[in-house]
Design brief:
The protein has 481 residues and is an alpha/beta fold. It has 3 domains: 86 residues; 182 residues, 3-Layer(aba) Sandwich (Rossmann fold); 189 residues, Glycogen Phosphorylase B (Rossmann fold, 3-Layer(aba) Sandwich). 46% of the residues lie in helices and 12% in strands. It contains 22 helices and 15 strands. The strands form 3 sheets. The chain has a 6-stranded parallel sheet. The chain has a 6-stranded parallel sheet with strand order 12-11-10-13-14-15, with helices on both faces. It has a 3-stranded antiparallel sheet with strand order 4-3-6, with no helix packed on it. Helix 1 packs antiparallel against helix 2.
């Protein structure tokens, strides 16, 4: 018997008890008819769901009520007996995982692996489709089932009946429902609707939280999926305190670390196999991973009259310093949705990006990483150059140095931040270093902030040993048992 099945049957029996308690001599017949119908509903439910449970208890109860001997105490005793028997039944649970983008699968993968190891759990991995709505004139439905690891059994969303299956736990990483202006899952997968078919809706953030600015950061804490969730995966005590500020109850927060960090830790344990198509360009060199955030080029373009087009300027500097340099190699990993955004709204930036793609592909030491899995790039790179992005948080866990395009956070913002990213290197601001200086530092294996940075990370991510997903899973299961 699954938890939801047990819960539904028990709730119906408790309703019957309430009717029995309210029965009066003059209305017993009418109330008994309602109770008999409720018992019939339970019997149909058990049959339809093929639940392995002795139905004779319910048949005896129904027979007693049909005989109408008016012995209310006898009814109560038998119903209470059935409830106690059901509560002692060994229960199983269905855990349904609903990722929509393969790139974000790591936000729940280690939880899924823990569910696979639990003999009482039936885990279902069911990627769901989403609409690309960046261009209102060209809305497309995208289904990334084929991009998920082939080692996992995938359930096709078109063959799964949510209402009939009644999953006990549902895990999501899309909290936006209808509030995202780039991607949107079909309405049947909105959190408000999923909540109607499960006992426990769990939100697994698809990102890790590095900074917090009251007002500006509100959207990360008040989206529909977070509000509707029964449980929220939280990376640290510092992030927990932020959620509490927004009025969330402590029991809703699962503070065990981030599954995304589990993925990094486990990936770094794997043998460093450079993808075949990269080997000729990167093998035997100091490798720099360049990460460009989704909004970096658009924001720069919008503010170019005030600051100049810094996104183009800095990417030009990087190209001049690294491309065709015999001492190093460059892996560029632009945000997977960046080009779509530029095509829809920022054609001027798009021409530069296309030229940059061409130059890297034609170079002797540059590759573009378009894979859903970014861990090969993590493993074979020696350092990261990045705009502010959640990818920085994950890369820091590798222990390798990071150079951020922007300036460090101010003192107040840094004190508020769950992750002290000022323990990285910066292109502008106080103690800024150039791309050339950073390149030389990495080549010489110098990283003066390493120890302090790693000490900070142990507080920023609980269970930094790769067990965050497993411990989160068991806290959730124990809470619903």
């Amino acid at each position: 018997m699954y938890i939801t099945e047990q819960k539904k049957i028990t709730e119906t029996l408790n309703t019957i008890v309430e009717y029995i308690n309210c029965m009066k001599m003059q209305s017993i017949s009418e109330s008994l008819e309602i109770c008999i119908n409720a018992v019939d509903a339970i019997l149909r439910y058990i049959k339809n769901k093929k639940i392995n449970f002795q139905v004779n208890y319910f048949e005896d109860l129904k027979k007693m009520m049909i005989n109408n001997d008016n012995n209310l105490e006898q009814y109560r005793i038998l119903v209470s007996k059935i409830i106690n028997i059901i509560k002692k039944e060994k229960v199983r649970y269905k855990a349904l995982f609903l990722p929509y983008k393969a790139d974000m699968w790591t936000s729940m993968e280690s939880i899924y692996l823990a569910a696979q190891k639990d003999e009482n759990c039936s885990p279902i991995l069911m990627p769901i489709p989403y609409y690309d709505i960046g261009n209102p004139n060209d809305i497309r439905l995208i289904y990334e089932k084929h991009r998920f690891p082939q080692k996992y059994k995938i359930t096709d969303y078109q063959t799964y009946n949510l209402k009939a299956e009644e999953p006990d736990i549902i895990f999501i990483h899309n909290p936006y429902d209808g509030c995202n202006n780039l991607t949107r899952v079909p309405e049947m997968f909105f959190s408000k609707n999923l909540k109607q078919v499960t006992s426990c809706l769990v939100y697994c953030p698809y990102f890790t939280t590095a900074s917090y600015t009251p007002g500006k950061s509100d959207f990360q804490y008040i989206t529909p999926g977070i509000i509707n969730a029964d449980k929220i995966i939280v990376q640290s005590e510092a992030v927990k305190q932020i959620f509490l500020q927004y009025g969330y109850m402590e029991e809703k927060l699962v503070v065990k670390g981030s599954p995304k960090i589990d993925a990094v830790i486990n990936a770094m344990k794997c043998e460093n196999q450079i993808p075949v198509e990269w080997q000729e360009k990167v093998k035997g060199k100091k490798v720099f991973l360049l990460n460009t955030h989704l909004s970096y080029f658009p924001t720069s373009n919008i503010n170019k009259n005030k600051y100049g087009d810094y996104a183009i300027r800095y990417h030009k500097e990087i190209m001049e310093e690294f491309i065709d340099n015999p001492d190093c190699a460059l892996i560029w990993r632009p945000h997977p949705l960046m080009k779509n955004m530029l095509e829809d709204r920022f054609q001027e930036c798009l021409s530069f990006v296309k030229d940059m793609e061409r130059r890297i592909e034609e170079s002797s030491n540059g590759v573009i990483d378009r894979n859903a899995d970014y861990f090969p790039a993590f493993r074979c790179s020696d350092a990261l150059i990045s705009t502010y992005s959640s990818l920085i948080n994950e890369y820091m866990v590798t222990g390798k140095p990071v150079l951020i395009f922007q300036k460090p956070l101010g003192k107040e913002a840094n004190n508020r931040a769950p992750i002290k990213r000022n323990l990285n290197y910066f292109r502008i601001g106080e103690n800024a270093i150039s791309f050339k200086e950073f390149k030389q530092m990495v080549i010489e294996n110098r990283d003066i902030m390493y120890d302090e940075r790693m000490d900070m990370l142990r507080k920023a991510f609980l269970n930094l040993d790769g067990t965050a997903g497993e411990k989160s899973y068991w806290e959730i299961v124990n809470s619903i048992l």
